[in-house]
Amino acid sequence: MVTDDGSQARQLVVKRLRGALAGLERAGRQPNRREAYYFCQAMEHLQADRLPESEEALSNAQHVRPLPPDLAAKPEGNRPPTVQQLRRALDKLAAA
Questions:
Q1: Angle made by CA atoms 2, 43, 48, in degrees to the nearest 5
Q2: CA–CA distances in Å: residue 48 to residues 31, 38, 51, 66
Q3: Of 42-46, 74-78, 91-95, minimum mean pLDDT range
Q4: Which of 13, 48, 55, 82 is most exposed by smallest CB count within 10 Å?
Q5: Within 13 Å and on the Cβ side, how many CA atoms surround 57?
Q6: pTM of the model
Q7: Are 25 and 70 in contact (CB under 8 A)?
C-alpha cells in the first residue's frame, strides 16, 4: 500500500514524465531511441513503485544518456514509441 507521502511522490514523478513528454511535443518532435528507452524504463519503475529508479531513468532520458551496451547493438529498438503512445501508457499508469 502506498502512503500519502508515497502517493505524492508518485504523482510528482507522473507530473515530471508528463512535462518531459509535453516538452517533446512543444519541440515538434518524437523521442529518439535513447529518450524512448529511458521513458519506458521510468514508467516500468513507476508501475513497480520504484520511484527513485523511475526518477533516475527520467533524468537519463532528459540528458539523453547512452543506452546500455547490450541494448545499443540490438536493431529491434530502432522504432521507438511515439509521444502519443508514451502518453497513453502514462495515463493508464496514472489512473491505476
A1: 40
A2: 23, 15, 8, 24
A3: 74-78
A4: 48
A5: 20
A6: 0.86
A7: no
Q: Which residues contact 30 (CB under 8 A, 6 or more apart)?
A: 24, 80, 82, 83
Task: Show the domain range for 60.
Answer: 4-95
What are 67's three cell numbers? 543506452
- CB-based burial of residue 61 (10 Å sphere; 0-12 exposed, 13-18 middle, 19+ buried)? buried
pLDDT at 17: 95
For residues 11-31, give the mean pLDDT. 95
Question: Is the separation of the CB atoms in 26 and 58 below 8 Å?
Answer: no
Confidence grade of residue 1 (pLDDT, cut at 50, 70, 90): very low
Strand, coil or helix: 31: coil
Structural domain count of the chain: 1
